[in-house]
Amino acid sequence: MSSPNEPAEPADDSAAGGLVRVRLELSYDGTDFAGWAAQPGLRTVQGVLQDALGTVLRRPVAVTVAGRTDAGVHASGQVAHLDVAAPTWAAEGDRLAHRLNRLLAADVRVRAARAVPAEFDARFGALWRRYEYLICDGVPDPRLRRHVLSWPRRLDETAMATAASELLGLHDFAAYCKPRDTGTTIRTLQALDVVRGGELIACTVQADAFCHSMVRSLVGALIAVGEGRKQPSWPAAQLPRAERAAASVAPAHGLTLVEVRYPADDELAARIEQTRAMRAAPS
């Protein structure tokens, strides 16, 4: 079994009494969590989930997640995987989600738990992740205050949408990522849509993967455009920068991971190999 922060290798379920790879589908309100990743002394989604799994399965368990959300970020469509001993899965599989939800606090739910092919990898097998960021630039609904950013000034969603369209495609997004010593910042931004419905603006962001704080940094740049502080051409003009752009990072609570998509079972191994290959810089 890999450590909590490392991708697990494919389960070996070929032998009797081997392992079964299990896919978990999760939702959580990130308000009271210090993010996904387990951290000593802090309440995290991974920490409470692994504690519950350890109680139900009677052994320490490490899970690998599709997207390691930051503190305060929510999820309605998070995906994770773990390996379970085949006899344990045979005994507990049908009721695993129910038993976990009885142990977990109300701000995190396991929506489903099912066996998947040994090649399934929640992190490296994903085709894309989709996030939604919600902004209210009118009178906010107090019932939504934990999930929607309340903005005090009217935003120009048309200008925001124009700016968003210029960011699409394969780029080095170092200007929109929190610096880290390892890992590439090259990503393919597949969608960045800005749609208004009354006083609510939804920014939907989809990419093959995201680097640290990328979505919130992109939204922060779009808000600057929506307020008129920056021209619609400004966000794309920052892409050549090797360091983070000067736009503010949008607060965490407006952001939700809504969906992660995977290929067909017979394409999982090829997708993992493709994802793990080093990304080439765009020409």
UniProtKB/TrEMBL annotation:
Residue positions binding substrate = Y131
State the NCBIfam families in the record. Answer: hisT_truA
Sorted UniProt keywords: Isomerase, tRNA processing
Q: Which Pfam families match?
A: PseudoU_synth_1
Q: What is the lineage of its organism?
A: Bacteria, Bacillati, Actinomycetota, Actinomycetes, Jatrophihabitantales
- Gene3D superfamilies per UniProt: Pseudouridine synthase I, catalytic domain, C-terminal subdomain, Pseudouridine synthase I, catalytic domain, N-terminal subdomain
List the SUPFAM superfamilies hit by this protein, alphabetically.
Pseudouridine synthase
Catalytic activity, EC: 5.4.99.12
Task: List, from the UniProt record, the residues annotated as the active site of this protein.
Answer: D70 (nucleophile)
| Molecular-function annotations in GO | tRNA pseudouridine(38-40) synthase activity
What InterPro entries does the entry give?
A: PsdUridine_synth_cat_dom_sf, PsdUridine_synth_TruA, PsdUridine_synth_TruA_a/b_dom, PsdUridine_synth_TruA_C, TruA/RsuA/RluB/E/F_N
Briefly, what is this protein's role? Answer: Formation of pseudouridine at positions 38, 39 and 40 in the anticodon stem and loop of transfer RNAs.
| Keyword ATP-binding on entry | no
Protein's UniProt name: tRNA pseudouridine synthase A
The family line of this record is: Belongs to the tRNA pseudouridine synthase TruA family.
Q: Which CDD domains match?
A: PseudoU_synth_EcTruA
Give residue ranges for domain Pseudouridine synthase I TruA alpha/beta: 27-124, 163-263
Q: Which domain of life is it from?
A: Bacteria
Q: Which species is this UniProt entry from?
A: Jatrophihabitans cynanchi
Q: Which gene encodes it?
A: truA
Q: Which reaction does it catalyse?
A: uridine(38/39/40) in tRNA = pseudouridine(38/39/40) in tRNA
Its quaternary structure? Homodimer.
